[in-house]
Amino acid sequence: KNHRCKDMRYTPGEDYKVWLERVRMFELGEAYKRLALGQDPSQVIKDLAYKITEKGLYPIYATIQKRNKKS
């Protein structure tokens, strides 16, 4: 298991811009590692965009789900 991933958990109430910056920095680092291993740059960039988008949207989805459960 990647222990660094544990640090990527969203903390409810965390500033959204801070969260997105942490996600960006983490995923960029992972992308650099993959490039250093010789992986296809095009695929690395696609995966980077997908992961940042998915992780960036998580707090929004979580808030919507939480509000829907209250209704």
Count of helical stretches: 3
Please mark out the parts with pLDDT under 50 across 5 or more consecutive residues, or reply none. none
SSE series: HHH
Provide the β-strand percentage band: under 5%
What proportion of the residues is helical, as a percent range?
A: over 70%
Structural write-up:
It is a single chain. By secondary structure, the chain is mainly α. The protein is 77% helix and 0% strand. It is built from 3 helices and no strands. Helix 2 (16-36) runs antiparallel to helix 3. The longest helix is centred in the C-terminal third of the chain and has 30 residues, at 41-70. The N and C termini lie far apart (37 Å).
In brief, what are we looking at here?
This protein has 71 residues and is an all-alpha fold.
Which helices and strands, and how do they pair?
Blueprint: H1 3-6, H2 16-36, H3 41-70
Structure keywords:
77% helix; 71 residues; mainly alpha; elongated
